[in-house]
């Protein structure tokens, strides 16, 4: 078992204003595309992502945790395997948690637009602020950055990507870090809540958090204002509670599919007929697929007024008798018909179910970092490993001493292709909570 080695300045010493974050950063509440004047005044300062921090001043870190910076810098190849933003998210989070300096090169080298986008830059800046770290090379389209982390700290954090960059990808970056902070942290994230090539906020709320709580993770989502491409302007407010250590998980038996819910939401001035066509197609496909087992199918069409601008989307969630949740989502856009969106989203869920995994293809890679940090051995049954999952395993093994193994399940039912991903975690401990009694006497 290892302890998170902290260093840097004592808690409570900050160059930031001590004013409450709500006085610094306006969250606003525009509806159906109507802007908030006060918020727009704050957004006209440029296109560079903004990160604000208000410290919690009640905690001082004992001197015994003021360790010297590590001299060795781990080099990370940003073009390896998946070769995208996931490498930045996992590497920066582990750097923060383990107080390990890193240098990431060839960032998104094989992408059409190599280097950092606004969303990636926002995530790196947020991690650097959260650990009082020194971040070098942080600029749009930069292909190399260096992070020299300090102490993980709690407080109120706010990020404005100034684009439709995914707030859920920001959450993937910062959430592991704040689990090892001294106390509860509040996040205000602004950008795209329902972005392409990223999990939508509903996936985070209704699927990710169901598995996260098995590790002992406690997150409460207090507010969601949907934001879409190209303007973004969506907002999410949530609280993250720290924990002493992550509990290992075992999810190797899925059980029977007991229910499937199909929900279409539509926002702004878009006609409800788009959602109705999508809902009808998805419902019919699901009912045909599960007609023999007579799985109940629930449907819901939501006209969501908590949004900025126009947008719509679909989520299909399958729940099982042993508590597993498999989800498929899709975002509507002018280039795809409602029927095609429904078809592609439904087919993906059916594929995940048929492969026999306990998690869907988008969940498996999101569990890897928590398995690597947990105290003990975790086991998860998945479908065929995605490239994102393989990348996550590679990075966690490179930056920690966690040990992963992947074994094909031999007694699969006909047509299934499932695997057991096993990890012996490093057992990182939150030193703040481990010495809580001592902190209180300081």
Tell me what the structure shows.
Strand 2, helix 3 and strand 3 (102-105) form a beta-alpha-beta unit. The protein has a six-stranded mixed sheet, with helices on one face. A four-stranded mixed sheet has the order 2-3-5-4, covered by helices on one side. The longest helix is centred in the middle third of the chain and has 18 residues, at 272-289. It contains twelve helices and 18 strands. It has helices spanning 21-24, 37-43, 85-98, 118-130, 167-178, 201-212, 272-289, 338-355, 364-373, 387-399, 431-434, 436-441; strands at 50-55, 74-77, 102-105, 134-136, 145-148, 155-160, 185-191, 219-227, 234-240, 250-251, 257-267, 297-304, 307-308, 311-320, 325-331, 377-382, 403-408, 419-424. By secondary structure, the chain is α/β, with parallel strands linked by helices.
Low-confidence segments, given as residue ranges, are: 3-45, 57-68
Q: Specify the number of helices.
A: 12
Structural class: alpha/beta
Q: Sketch the topology as an H/E string, one letter per element.
A: HHEEHEHEEEHEHEEEEHEEEEHHEHEEHH
């Amino acid at each position: 078992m290892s302890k998170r080695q902290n260093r840097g300045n004592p808690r409570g010493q900050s160059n930031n204003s001590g004013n409450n974050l709500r006085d610094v950063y306006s969250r606003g509440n525009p509806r159906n595309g109507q802007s908030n004047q006060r918020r727009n005044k704050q957004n006209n300062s440029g296109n560079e992502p903004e990160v604000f921090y208000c410290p919690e001043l009640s905690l001082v870190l004992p001197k015994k945790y003021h360790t010297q910076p590590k001299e060795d810098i781990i080099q990370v190849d940003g073009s390896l395997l998946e070769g995208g933003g996931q490498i930045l998210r996992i590497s920066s989070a582990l750097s923060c948690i383990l107080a390990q300096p890193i240098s990431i090169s060839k960032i998104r080298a094989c992408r059409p637009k190599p280097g950092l986008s606004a969303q990636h830059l926002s995530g790196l800046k947020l991690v650097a602020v959260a650990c009082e770290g020194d971040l070098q090379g942080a600029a749009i389209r930069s292909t190399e950055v260096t992070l020299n982390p300090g102490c993980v700290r709690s407080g109120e954090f706010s990020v404005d990507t100034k684009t439709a960059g995914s707030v859920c990808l920001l959450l993937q970056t910062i959430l592991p870090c704040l689990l090892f902070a001294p106390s509860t942290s509040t996040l205000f994230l602004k950008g795209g809540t329902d972005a392409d090539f990223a999990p939508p906020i509903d996936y985070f709320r209704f699927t990710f958090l169901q598995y996260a709580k098995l590790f002992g993770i406690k997150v409460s989502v207090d507010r969601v204002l949907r934001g879409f491409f190209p303007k973004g302007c969506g907002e999410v407010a949530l609280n993250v509670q720290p924990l002493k250590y992550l509990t290992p998980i075992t999810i190797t038996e899925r059980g029977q599919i007991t229910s499937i819910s199909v929900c279409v939401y539509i926002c702004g001035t878009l006609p409800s007929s788009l959602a109705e066509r999508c809902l009808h197609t998805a419902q019919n496909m699901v009912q045909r697929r599960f007609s023999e087992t007579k799985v109940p199918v629930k449907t819901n069409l939501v006209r969501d007024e908590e949004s900025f601008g126009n947008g719509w989307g679909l989520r299909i969630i399958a729940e099982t008798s042993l508590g597993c949740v498999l989800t498929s989502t899709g975002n509507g856009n002018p280039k795809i018909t409602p029927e095609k969106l429904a078809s592609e989203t439904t087919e993906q869920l059916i594929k995940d179910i048929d492969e026999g995994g306990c998690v869907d293809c988008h969940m498996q890679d999101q569990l890897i970092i928590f398995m690597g940090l947990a105290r003990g051995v975790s086991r998860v049954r998945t479908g065929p490993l995605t490239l994102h999952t393989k990348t996550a395993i590679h990075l966690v093994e490179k930056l920690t001493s966690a040990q992963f193994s992947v074994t094909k399940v031999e007694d699969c039912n006909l047509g299934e292709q499932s695997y057991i991903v096993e990890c012996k975690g490093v057992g990182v401990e939150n030193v703040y909570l481990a010495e809580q009694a001592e902190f209180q006497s300081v």
